Amino acid sequence: MPLTHPPIPTIPSPPPPAHLKVLCFGDSLTAGYSMFGLYFYPYATHLQAVLQAAFPATTIQTTVEGMSGAQVRGQYTGRLHRACRLAAAGAEPFDWVVVLGGTNDLGWGAGAEEVFGALGMGKGEGGYLSSGVIILYASIAISLISFRAMVLTEATEEVWNIALATGANVLALTVPEAAVRDASLVRRRDTLNALIEEHVAEGFYHMDLCHAVPYFGMEERKREAVWDDGLHLKAEGYKMMGDAIGAHLAELLPSLESMKNRKAAKVNDAGNEI
Question: Phi/psi at 264 (nearest 5 deg)?
Fold first, then answer.
């Protein structure tokens, strides 16, 4: 007589969220800066399209808060506070805050741990301007660079923690490559990206944007279609960026909804036992 096994129970997938509000926060790469500021192609447009395709029944809203030339140290916390307050005032706080920062800090010579300290936590580290970075920045339109950023104040609150304190999840992006092969810049960027990827906190997630949209690891013809001035992207590049971030979020959301449902069930069970 053949052995019979009980059927394996199927676990239903959690329903997608009814509403999803995402803040894309950062510098010129978040704003979609291109062609010396003549055009802007925010990656958020493509991020939203990817999420909408993955969750057609969900109402998805994206907000872009990108500032050209902005540095994490001194030019992020106030802007993020304002964005979160405005969202909360409309009774629709952000579910996700996608944070990209560090390109300008590193370009002006900041140390990796110094930038990480302003993003999340860590002690300050000295830095310096390298000739290769100066050449790259000098070759880009002056409007890109806010010289006021040379006089910096340390962030009194870490950027990620501001977002997490509102109840939002944070998706931190690693800093992408640039055309300059400056040894100091590469070392500091790689160190900062490693710190971002190693950071652990409830509600905190990361994505390796540096790997998803490479500069040197890209075939030359494709690089010409994707990259603009060696620091910023063309429309195709920002589409590539938004597609990658959207796909990453789409993978995270089902597991997070399932986790949220389990937590809610535990709370209900505990309440029923009282």
Answer: -65, -40
Cβ atoms of residues 49 and 247 within 8 Å: no
CB-based contact 30:66 (threshold 8 Å): yes
Residue count of the chain, please give it: 274
E strand map for the chain: 19-26, 33-34, 39-40, 59-66, 96-99, 169-173, 204-207
* Residue 138 reports pLDDT greater than 90: no
Token representation of residue 2 = 């053949």
Give CA–CA dist 163/170, Å, rounded.
7
pTM exceeds 0.70: yes
User: What pLDDT is recorded for position 210?
Assistant: 97
Return d(Cα 52, Cα 50) in angstroms, integer.
Answer: 5
Bridge partners of 59, per DSSP, are 19
